Structure formats: C-alpha cells, structure tokens
Amino acid sequence: MLTGKIAVVTGASRGIGRAIALKLASKGAAVIVNYNGSEEKALEVKHEIEVQGGRAAISQCDVSDFEKCEAFITSVIKEYGQIDILVNNAGITRDGLLMKMSEEDFDKVVDTNLKGAFNTIRFASRQMLKQRKGRIINMASVVGVTGNAGQANYAASKAGIIGLTKAAARELASRGVTVNAIAPGFIETDMTNALPEKVKEATISQIPLGKFGKAEHVAAAAAFLASEEAEYITGQVLCVDGGMAM
Length: 246
Ligand code: NAP
What we know:
The chain is α/β, with parallel strands linked by helices.
C-alpha cells in the first residue's frame, strides 16, 4: 500500500498518466495530477480519485519550462512537506522523416520528453535525498531502445530518458532513492489513436502478444516500482510491450 505517500504524476490529465494517477491513488497515495493544457480532464481525474475515497490535487505546469518546474515542485514540497513518488510521464510526438524534420519539432519533443524529466528530478531529488527515501519513475518507450523510422526526435528523447534514469539511479542510490524507467510498447491512448489504420495493423503484427496494451498495464508496472516491494530495484528499464522489444 502507498498510504501516506505523496505522488506527483506529470501529464496525468489523459492516457497513461491518468491511469497511473488513478492506480497510485487506489493504493492510498495522495496524487498531484499535473497537466499542461487539459484542465477539464485533469479535474475529471481528481474527481474520479475523490469519488473513490482518495486524495488528489491538480497542478498546471509545462514540464519543459525549468523555472516553472522549480515553482511547481517547490509548491508541492511547501504544501505537503514531502515527495515520495515522482512519475515523469508527460510526453508528446511530432513525427516526421529526419530529412524533413524542423528544428522546432526536434526541440519541442526533446524539451518536453527529456528535459521535462530532468527539470522535475532536478528539484524533487533534493527533497528525496533529505527524506532518505523516494521513487522516481520515468516514462521511456520501446522506441528509445529499438529506434523507429519517422521518430528521430521521439526516439532520441526516449533513449535519453534511459540514460538520465541510469545516471540519476547511480547518483541517488546511496540515500535510498530508486530511479527506474518503464518502456511501453504500443498502448491504446490518444497518442496511438492518431496513427493511421495501416500503421496500427503493421505494428500489431510485430507484437508477440498480438494486441496493443492498455494504460492500466503500464500503471500496474508503475505502482509496483513505486512500492516498498521494489526497494532493491534501481536503474532498470521495464518493458511493458507485449514482447515487442525482446
Ligand atoms: P497522451 O494520451 O497524448 O497524453 C499525454 C499527456 O502528457 C497529457 O496528459 C498531456 O497533458 C501531457 N503533456 C504533454 N505535454 C506536456 C507538457 N509540456 N507539460 C506537462 N504535461 C504535458 O500520451 P500517452 O500515450 O498517455 O503517453 C504518456 C507517456 O507514455 C508519454 O511520455 C509517451 O511518450 C509514453 N509512451 C506512450 C506510448 C503509447 O503507445 N501510448 C508508448 C510508449 C511510451 P495536457 O493534455 O494537459 O497537455
């Protein structure tokens, strides 16, 4: 159980982040539901948690903004006095072939997916070190392991997340703070709903378990890595991908 724990989940207004927020709350954590643009949806997540008897708050912050992340994480620490679980889930895609990719599309994806995780870890880790306890979970992707045509920006950001995870794991381990990554395969969310049918069919043929995953599958892995049972696991990349990247 996660009773008494304070959890921050970035990009929790929709998709995988939403499922993680609901799962951590169902285990007893008070959850800060971060969002960027979807305030209504973040409020719905908060409401859903509260209806089930849990504790939640919403907080707007563009994770790609270093100073806003400082204000966001500082305000959580001020209000709750602790941060036990940090899930860096916020992420975007701006797909396109490398030769045609704009500098803006490259920067936007790396700034959100990779720098966003650095930004929150930068400010939350000091508190976790003080507590001598903490769980950081970063959302990578199988694409960060295998690469993918048309996703140079996204694959680079997710491979970067894996490096960031391992470096942070080594830096923070001596004070009982674990840092792990989850690498989802193809999960049914707004992000993958946007893919053309042909691409979806071709992708399913590459998945040994023969179907897309659900956000709840990723949330279950996150809840495990956030738990006391996972105290001896750090610097790892857990693939939740139906066997895709093995
Ligand atoms: P999604 O349905 O598109 O949701 C993305 C979430 O990220 C939203 O809550 C969005 O908030 C938030 N977000 C985007 N930019 C943000 C920013 N600058 N600051 C704060 N929040 C921001 O995506 P998803 O499929 O659930 O993906 C979640 C994570 O899993 C991402 O890191 C993604 O790369 C990773 N992933 C997904 C899959 C998949 O198949 N779906 C596979 C591998 C990895 P607002 O709506 O409020 O802007």
